[in-house]
Amino acid sequence: MAKNKKKDKGEAGQTPASASPADRPAPKIPKRKTPAERRRAQIEGIKKTLYAALLGVAAGVICFYFLGDGTNIVFREAKLEWHFILMNLLLITYLVQKAVYPFLGINVAEFKTKDWLYVEFIAVDLWAVTWTVLLN
After folding, report:
1. pLDDT tens-digit series, residues 67-96
2. Domain locations in the chain?
């Protein structure tokens, strides 16, 4: 019985495979970048990576000197947990990068979610590595 089901047909009564080539949308052809555009994109990528890395290392050093080992962090009689520090670090590094990247010649308006996740991962990863190395 399941074999007798009919395939869905389009509005014109044609199956998508039998539609005329004029009715199908044209495939998107990616725009080829010139060598100058590729070089500019590569330099921007290096700048983004280096700045996020330096920001992460600086955050690790700052956390080491101000927070020590991070076990007894008290602010106004409230003990701060590690996830509070991490969330604040994410917020601060995001805001700092968003403010500084235009000065480095990087267009922040072109950033997508993938780009922000990438630079934040670099910053947080190097923060954790730096703080851990300094604690040992």
Report:
1. 877 777 777 777 777 788 889 999 999 999
2. 51-136
Which are the contacts of 21, defined by CB distance < 8 A and separation ≥ 6? none
> Are the CB atoms for 60 and 127 separated by under 8 Å?
yes
Task: Determine the Cα–Cα distance for residues 134 and 63; give it in Å rounded to an integer.
Answer: 10
**Residue 51: count of CB within 10 angstroms of its CB:** 19
- For the segment 81-136, what is each residue's pLDDT rounded down to a tens digit? 778 888 999 999 999 999 999 998 888 888 889 989 999 999 999 999 999 999 88
Closest C-alpha to 18, from 27, 8, 26, 28: 8
Q: Which residues contact 39 (CB under 8 A, 6 or more apart)?
A: none
